[in-house]
Every structure is written in structure tokens, then in C-alpha cells.
Specification:
9-stranded mixed β-sheet; 5-stranded antiparallel β-sheet; about 400 residues; Alpha-Beta Plaits; Aminopeptidase; binds manganese (II) ion; binds (2S)-amino(hydroxy)ethanoic acid
């Protein structure tokens, strides 16, 4: 069967156009969920979907769906990713999967490809978890509750309910975005690897077989603010010293309780009162830990809890933490993995099987349907950074593999 091809120039133009929304000169993209830039990108995408003559549908969680051949009866083959970004992001994390999904539906429509199953390309809400987890795909998979929506807030304390209400959206509508598992035939996401494996091995395609899970805590050590000049070192209850000690313990904790795939990050620390001449009495910090094995994640959570407790005791401090988000590690569907692998062989594209250290909507979607991922290389493994880059020829190859995978999964 001849292989289909995307309209690369059209896709390239979409990528360039979208990359200008939310950009801060030399600082990357700031399209955090429900920021003004995210809303602007959403409006831009909806216009592109309508310009393409595809059916536009926005669900209660504000997931944006482009649909082809939709009849509300047959299960659909879904692709997609996310428009929202971390602060200071690159132009491809999420955007690539949304735009290649849209391009694939345009091509299938233009080439009048006969479909056994309707196609959907989705832009999921808040994949980057500004408000905790992957709200958009979790809504589709029925993983949200009124309580989880009510308590969802970002690291600065902004509530999801308020952020959505600012744009006339009711967060509780996300409870109605749930899809029946039998309304989906399969899910496949194209994404940049965000790591160094493909780039180092000069490979063009990664076929993902497992996706790491994580836990994300908002934690704090509470000691005593005091004079930085008169308080002897032995009499201090310094909250930042506790965070520094915990950070120094990370290699030991991972070595003793983790696997070769375990990673841990303290990405944000806020000290108060926050003056140069005051011993910090309070240190708020984020702790995020990942692995592809749920049992390892559990062991690491216990180890970090023990370490924080021991440090607090030694330093006469209090410690607290709340779980901001948890994602379960997931395996990809072997049938989809095989479909992508055989297409790469047929198309003469060098590829490899690999795991994803990054979390993705695919792992949520895998709880209600067969799911898989296709990776393209990230130059020097860089991502969540303005220097994120993937060569255009790799983008074209990845988009063509996605197009032909969709055809294999949904085509007549
Ligand atoms: O953080 C991640 O793994 C993904 O980029 N949301
Ligand atoms: Mn992403
Ligand atoms: Mn990301």
C-alpha cells in the first residue's frame, strides 16, 4: 500500500505561526494554561480547524477537537497533544502533536481517504499541569472529581476555577467531558523526545513502549526567622538549610530506593521573610520525582518522606507537604507499537524502541483505549527551554509516520 504524505510547507507555516503566540523576546514561550497567550493560541487553532473545513468541537474541559468523518456512532481514532507550555518553553513541546494531528486530518480529507473509523485531533487542556495534573485528558478519561477541580491551584495559589472563569469557562463542566471507552478505537501522539537518545544515536523516530509516572509535592520546612548577624549558627532554625540538605540527599535516596530511570527535581524554592539579613524561617519548595515503575515511585515517596522528617528533627523544624499531582506510569499498546515499527521499516526510517521520561496525555488516554507515542529527536536533548529544536526533516518524517499510522488504524 503506497504511503501517504503530509503537506510539509503548510505544516511548517502552522508551526512558525503558532510559535509566535506567547513568545517573550529571547526567553521562549509563556503559554501557561489559561493565560492570555494560551487563550490566544486556542482561538488561533479553532480558526485553523474551521478554515480546513473540519468539524470543530470543544468539550467541557476546554479540550479542542478537530473531527473528520465523525458520526457519534463509530469509535474514533484520536491523535493530539497540547498547546499550553511551561514558562520559558520551546516552540514544539505539545504544539508539534497538535499541528501534525491537524495536518493529518486535512490530508486525509483532501486525499479523500476512506475511513473505517472517524478521526479526531485534540489539543488537551493544561498538559503541563500548571493546576496539578493533565486536566484535559483526565477529564476525557473520567479521572476528575468536583473536589479535585475545586482544590486545583497553581504554585502561586491561583485556583483553576478562577483562571477558567476569567474566560467565561466553568471548571465543573470538565466533569461532563468524559468519553465512554467504547467511543475510542485508539490514541496515538506525536511528540518531541525531550531527551538526548535519538539525537545522540542519529535516529529519526522513537517508538515509545513505556511512559514514566511521577509525584509532585508542594512542601515546606518551618523554622524561625531571626537576625542574620546576632544568631549563632548553632542556634538557628534555618528553613533553607533544610532544603539544601534535602537536595544534597537526592543522589543517595535515588541510589538506595530508585532505578536507573529515577529522577528527582526541586524546581522552585521560595524563602520567607526573604531578606538578606534575616535567617529564613520558612522555605516553600516543589519536589517532583519520576520513574517508569509504580513500585519504585512508591519506595521513593516513602524515602523522601523519611528524609524530610529526619532533617526536620535534626534541625528542630516542622515539615509539611501536599500532593499537587500524581501520574501513574503506563505501558503503550503492543499492537500500536508494532504498527509504528513496521511502518518505519516499510518507509526505510531508522527507529528505536524507548521509554518516555516525560509525562504525556498518552499515559492518561491509555487508561481507556489502546495508546501509543511516536518521538522525533530533540537537538542536544533540550526541552522546556527556549533552545528546544527539532530538524525540519525530522518533523516531516515524524508527521508522515503519524499520518500513515492513523491510516493503518482508521483507514478502510
Ligand atoms: O513534565 C512533563 O513531563 C511534560 O512535559 N508535561
Ligand atoms: Mn509535552
Ligand atoms: Mn512539557
Amino acid at each position: 500500500m503506497p504511503h501517504l504524505s503530509i503537506d510539509f510547507q503548510r505544516l511548517k507555516q502552522d508551526i512558525v505561526d503558532l510559535s509566535s503566540i506567547g513568545r517573550r523576546e529571547n526567553q521562549g514561550l509563556y503559554r501557561m494554561a489559561f493565560s492570555a497567550a494560551d487563550i490566544q493560541a486556542r482561538q488561533w487553532l479553532q480558526q485553523r480547524i474551521e478554515d480546513a473545513g473540519l468539524q470543530l468541537y470543544v468539550d467541557g474541559a476546554a479540550n479542542i477537537h478537530a473531527r473528520l468523518g465523525w458520526d457519534g456512532e463509530r469509535p474514533s481514532v484520536m491523535t493530539g497533544s497540547h498547546l499550553d507550555t511551561v514558562p520559558g518553553a520551546g516552540h514544539l513541546d505539545g504544539a508539534l502533536g497538535v499541528l501534525t494531528g491537524l495536518e493529518c486530518l486535512r490530508c486525509m480529507q483532501e486525499q479523500q481517504i476512506a475511513l473505517r473509523f472517524p478521526l479526531e485531533s485534540v489539543a488537551f487542556t493544561d498538559e503541563e499541569g500548571r493546576f496539578g495534573d493533565m486536566i484535559g485528558s483526565q477529564a476525557i478519561c473520567g479521572q476528575l472529581t468536583p473536589e479535585s477541580l475545586h482544590s486545583a491551584r497553581d504554585l502561586a495559589g491561583v485556583r483553576l476555577i478562577d483562571a477558567m472563569a476569567e474566560y467565561g469557562l466553568d471548571a465543573m463542566d470538565a466533569l461532563h467531558a468524559q468519553r465512554r471507552p467504547d467511543s475510542l478505537h485508539a490514541f496515538i501522539e506525536l511528540h518531541i523526545e525531550q531527551g538526548p537518545v535519538l539525537d545522540r544515536q542519529q535516529l529519526h523516530i522513537g517508538i515509545v513502549d513505556a511512559i514514566a509516572g511521577l509525584f509532585k509535592w508542594q512542601a515546606r520546612f518551618i523554622g524561625e526567622a531571626n537576625h542574620a548577624g546576632t544568631t549563632p549558627m548553632t542556634m538557628r532554625r534555618d528553613a533553607f538549610q533544610a532544603v539544601a540538605e534535602l537536595s544534597g540527599e537526592i543522589p543517595r535516596i535515588l541510589e538506595e530506593n530508585g532505578s536507573i530511570r529515577s529522577v528527582a527535581t526541586i524546581g522552585r524554592v521560595e524563602l520567607s521573610p526573604g531578606a538578606a539579613n534575616v535567617v529564613p524561617g520558612r522555605a516553600e519548595f516543589s519536589l517532583e520525582v519520576r520513574d517508569t515503575d509504580p513500585l519504585v515511585l512508591e519506595a521513593l515517596a516513602n524515602a523522601f518522606r523519611r528524609a524530610m522528617s529526619a532533617i526536620a528533627r535534626r534541625r528542630d523544624l516542622m515539615f509539611e507537604f501536599e500532593v499537587l499531582g500524581e501520574l501513574t506510569p503506563r505501558k503503550c499498546d503492543p499492537g500500536i507499537v508494532d504498527t509504528v515499527a513496521s511502518l518505519c521499516r516499510e518507509m526505510g526510517i531508522n527507529s528505536t524502541h524507548m521509554h518516555s521520561g516525560a509525562a504525556h496525555d498518552t499515559q492518561i488516554m491509555s487508561t481507556i483505549t489502546r495508546a501509543g507515542m511516536i518521538f522525533v529527536p530533540s537537538k542536544d536533548g533540550r526541552s522546556h527551554s527556549a533552545s528546544e529544536w527539532t530538524a525540519w526533516e525530522d518533523i516531516e518524517l515524524g508527521a508522515n509516520v503519524l499520518l500513515n499510522t492513523l491510516n493503518r488504524l482508521a483507514g478502510a
